[in-house]
Amino acid sequence: MKNINKNTIYIAAVTLVVGLLIGWFIFGGQKNAAKEEHKHTNEIAGETIWTCSMHPQIRKNEPGDCPICGMNLISLENDQNSEMDPMAISMSPTAMQLANVSTALVGKMKPVKQVRLNGKVQVDERLVYSQSSHIPGRIEKLMVNFTGEFVNKGQTIAGVYSPELVMAQEELFEAKKMMETQPQLFNAAKEKLKNWKLSNNQIEGILKSGKILEEFPIQADVSGYVTKKIINLGDYVRKGETLYEIANLSKVWVLFDVYESDISWIKKGDNVMFTISSLPGESFEASITYLDPVIDPKTRVAKARIEYNNTTEKLKPEMFVSGVVEAKLTNKSNSLVVPKTAVMWTGKRSVVYVKNTNAKGVSFMMREVTLGTALGDSYIIKEGLEEGEEIAVNGTFSIDAAAQLAGKPSMMNPEGGGVAMTGHNHGETKMEDSKDADKQKDAKTNKPISISKEAKKALQPVYVDYLKFKDFLAADNVEDAKKVAVSMQDNLSKINMSIFTGESHTVWMEFSSNLKNTLQHVPHLSNIEEVREKFRQISITMIEMTNTFNPFDKTLYIQYCPMANNDKGADWLSLEKEIKNPYFGKSMPKCGEVTKEINFY
Question: What is the CA radius of gyration of the chain?
Answer without folding.
Answer: 41
